Amino acid sequence: MNAISSTNPKHRQELENILGAGNVQPWGEIDSIQQQQIIQSLAPETPIQGIIYPQTQKQLAEVIAYTHQQQLKVLPCGFCSKIDWGGLVKNIDFVVSTQAINQLIEHAVGDLTVTVEAGMKFSQLQAILAQENQVLGFDPSHAETATIGGIIATGDTNSLRQRYRSIRDLILGISVVRYDGKIAKAGGRVVKNVAGYDLMKLFTGSYGTLGIISQITLRVYPQAQTSGTVILTGETSAISQLNQILLASALTPVAVDLISSNLSKILGFGDNLSLMVRLQSIPESVEQQSQRLIELAETLGLKTISFDCDEENLWKQLKQQIWESEANASIVCKIGITPTSAVKTLIESQTIGVIHAGVGLGVLRFDDVSPETLLKLRNWCASQGGFLSILKAPVDLKNQLEVWGYGGNALNLMRQIKQQFDPQNQFSPNRFVGGI
């Protein structure tokens, strides 16, 4: 159990002067579920005073200015859905939640852009966009609770990356609160970069270690008229061959996921490795592309299953199997390998896993695994030109292993950037690569 301190009355009073009464929650008043989520993100013996809830971007800036002046360290979050991803945070004083900073700023329907505050939930924004038959081009791990700011801070894109690329490619503008409480902006509605850095790319996947995202402008897309999914399953060599043919073809899937054999069984596809291919377009195009895919599969001796009516639920189930395990000690790893090594990597892992076949990125879930097995698998991914990072795991395991598994020549540059953006190591200390 981590050591927990009581709230310093002085800090609580000063912060409530900024935010109003009730917006600073001492540790002892936080519900047990949220306490447990936060504890899973902290190194042992890390004291914490509570959670701060700014109500506006201006208040967020004032809070960070105060914590800077008082040399307090903070851990940014939205609804805590990914607060335990990455390295164990050390020596923080407060969690700072953006969940109340959640307003729609502008939806330019004709321009296919939307500007929102960082605390807006992904699910809420999708509902707003659906009223104009538009959608976001990414599908985060915890779609119901994930905030837009948290998705960007963790670079949390999944299957739709095949069609829409990474989250950083979808950001048109960003506002961030710096270590001294000043707001910096880049791209989008106001073009104002800081010291020549591309803030949109720099803050994507920074895990709250450089500052706090407060507002984002995103590219959006027209909602497809029809969506359909084809499942292909059978011999490993045939799946691998079809995958290569598909990715080199004129077909335009929005998602192409390789599914491990044990996950295929759970989802009811059989005992073999499977390929899930999602197509979205006008009805005629989806039907034609599905038929072409089925023909290719049959020539290779693969079985096919087609979904249309309930396919949204199918993709939801896929994510639930990875991210919503009933095992409290489950371990989730993010991997990256060359796309041609995807099939071999799923076989090597011998666990529940998904790899986005077109880009070679994916996730593996273990309910019970030794540090030695994880290191062996990390070495395998490195031999395939890739990596294995531990996102979610019990504190004891994270204490035994270096979470990120990166020691390349960019580490010194990362530390220099951290020093420039956060000279007091105020934001999420030790959460990122190399203890940054």
Major sheet characteristics: 8 strands, antiparallel
The total beta strand count reads 19
Strand order of the largest sheet: 15-12-14-13-17-18-16-19
Shape: globular
Tally the helices: 15
Bin the helical content: 25-40%
In percent terms, what proportion of residues is strand?
Answer: 15-25%
**Average pLDDT for all residues:** 93
Rg = 22 Å
Gap between N and C termini, in Å? 24 Å
Low-confidence stretches: 190-195
Q: By helix and strand content, what is the structural category?
A: alpha+beta
Description:
Helices cover 33% and strands 22% of the residues. It contains 15 helices and 19 strands. The strands form four sheets. An eight-stranded antiparallel sheet has the order 15-12-14-13-17-18-16-19, sandwiched between helices. A five-stranded antiparallel sheet has the order 5-6-10-8-9. The protein has a four-stranded mixed sheet with strand order 1-2-4-3.
Q: Outline of this structure?
A:
By secondary structure, the protein is an alpha+beta fold. Helices cover 33% and strands 22% of the residues. The strands form 4 sheets. The chain has an 8-stranded antiparallel sheet with strand order 15-12-14-13-17-18-16-19, sandwiched between helices. The chain has a 5-stranded antiparallel sheet with strand order 5-6-10-8-9. Strands 1-2-4-3 form a 4-stranded mixed sheet.
